[in-house]
Amino acid sequence: MSPDELKRQAAKAAIALVESGMIVGLGTGSTAYFAIEGLIRRVREEKLDILAIPTSERSRAQAEAGGIPITDFATHRHIDLTIDGADEIAEGTLDLVKGLGGALLREKIVAASSARLVIIADDRKVVPGLGATTRIPVEVVPFGWETTADRIAALGADPKLRVDAAGAPYRTDGGNLIMDCGFGRLDDAGATERALSHVVGVVESGLFIGMAETALVATPAGVRRMVRGG
Fold it and tell me: Which element (helix H / strand E) includes 9?
């Protein structure tokens, strides 16, 4: 089974949780893409009655093109269910690394405003400890980013400025920059998140600690349901 087929299986399991009347958070990234496509089909075929708050302009465009009605936090302060992907999922705790898709700030705002955050992924994303297989994205303000990088490095990281395909600094939807920070496997991801939050110039980190309720992880044998603390 290909990675995309696994992602579709995880997305299918997640969108079955969505009911009419819900405010739904739409994630960003390759796995979230399949969830949005599935919700589009349910809206069209089942007349599923939902409103959505997307975590990126990319997800907004996909949802709007498919006929999913969009709302915002000015109208609805609370989200019933958010479906999003992850770059790493820690076994047991369901702590996450997110943000390789460039939307970590909006993703964290939406996650923090959600009654339930359900993560969808294939089994390659499950790790014994965060930071083992990927760098930690950290969103920073453009002004003085070089000094912000120095302060992040003082925490023991190897920060690298993310660039786009043309070699220019990558810009988030909010106009910020992203530093991809190599820490290695984190012994205490929560402590690292707290340390990053105190660095002047850092807007937000891609460490999502204690936020996910459930992860639906697709494997060749089927979809595995992981629960925080389980």
Answer: helix 3-15
Per the residue annotation, which of 45, 64, 88, 107 is the catalytic one?
Answer: 107
Q: What is the pLDDT of residue 100?
A: 94
Residues 81/25, Cβ–Cβ less than 8 Å = yes
Q: 29 with 84, same domain?
A: yes
Q: Tell whether 64 and 150 lie within a shared domain.
A: no
Q: Is 107 a catalytic residue?
A: yes
- Do 77 and 169 lie in one domain? The reply is no
> Which pTM does this prediction carry?
0.95
Q: Indicate if the alpha-carbon torsion angle 105, 107, 111, 117 is positive or negative.
A: negative
Q: How many CA atoms lie within 13 A of 113 on its CB side?
A: 21
pLDDT digits 0-9 by tens, 146-201: 999 999 999 999 999 999 999 999 999 999 999 999 999 999 999 999 999 999 99
SS3 content of the chain, % helix, strand, coil (to 5): 30, 25, 40
> What is the per-residue pLDDT for 155?
98
Please state, rounded to an integer, the average pLDDT across all residues of the chain.
97
